[in-house]
């Protein structure tokens, strides 16, 4: 049969993690922690399983989890979405993104996406018959050139996808960015899909500015987050979407036929665990310490680092070490130096290479130190 995505291969995360495993290299490529999630959270899963929470969860998500997401949203962003009509629990942010895109994109619709960008947006747009319209973030700081975005908006633009804090660059959008976005789409029916999975990882005293804090944007946005990032449980695949009732209704129509619902004991455990705010309140310090440690260990290396403003990723420019294409360089250092990273060209539709690798610092200090010791020798 002819492929619906002929140009799409295996994701770079799978490719680099497999190579890291094969080479027994230190894996700073795919984004996931190498330390365990909190023990009490694990205990809660066991408790809820034993108590019999092992059957289908309600389609929209366990009520207590939706309620607690709503409360957290109010504490963080000053707006309290209605748990019944505005909050939907999904199987990871990936599913929420899929459901949001599928809910709004019709054949011929254009969707603006900002590159480099996460790999889960464009293929889904295309599967809906939509057309991804790419705008590059501005080097060297990967800020958004809103004039450029404006030029790419047309009468066919259905949506714009933003991601802050940003994977892979660590860039963080400001309130001014959100104001510009709001001005840009005022008077249109363009919807925003805001990928905020790294909402609790912003450093140096800066704050994450959520679309949920912006009344104009909030009215026409899907805001997506992931418990995988916040609670060190990427393998659980629990995420959620917050959107106004009309958008939530459409998103749930998709969700009920993608997965229908998300594992009940995991939702129950997260619902209870998130009532204590300390974990996510401490997350910026927790990850900033790792970023700083990794950056410090790389002092004297020929990689050029601009400390990441958010996420658990650090970009490193390697043009003083090699002129190789970034994918080739990433594969070679996995084999020869024993450290795996993600080549950033994978986040551009035309595989543009700016000689950047992305390192994940969601790792123990031992892992980061061992990796850095190898990288400084390059
Ligand atoms: N969006 C971004 C920007 C991500 O980095 C990730 C995780 N790699 C996701 C979405 C997907 O999150 P989840 O694992 O919860 O599906
Ligand atoms: N979000 C993770 C990353 O950016 C990867 C998730 C995946 O492997 N699909 O590394």
Automatic annotation (TrEMBL):
Keywords: Aminotransferase, Pyridoxal phosphate, Transferase. Transmembrane segments: none annotated. Residues 25-375 form the Aminotransferase class I/classII large domain. The keyword Transferase applies. Gene3D superfamilies: Aspartate Aminotransferase, domain 1, Type I PLP-dependent aspartate aminotransferase-like (Major domain). CDD domains: AAT_like. The keyword Transferase applies. Pfam families: Aminotran_1_2. Its cofactor is pyridoxal 5'-phosphate. GO terms for molecular function: transaminase activity. It comes from the Bacteria. InterPro entries: Aminotransferase_I/II_large, Kynurenine-oxoglutarate_AT, PyrdxlP-dep_Trfase, PyrdxlP-dep_Trfase_major, PyrdxlP-dep_Trfase_small. This is Methionine aminotransferase. It comes from Pontibacter toksunensis.
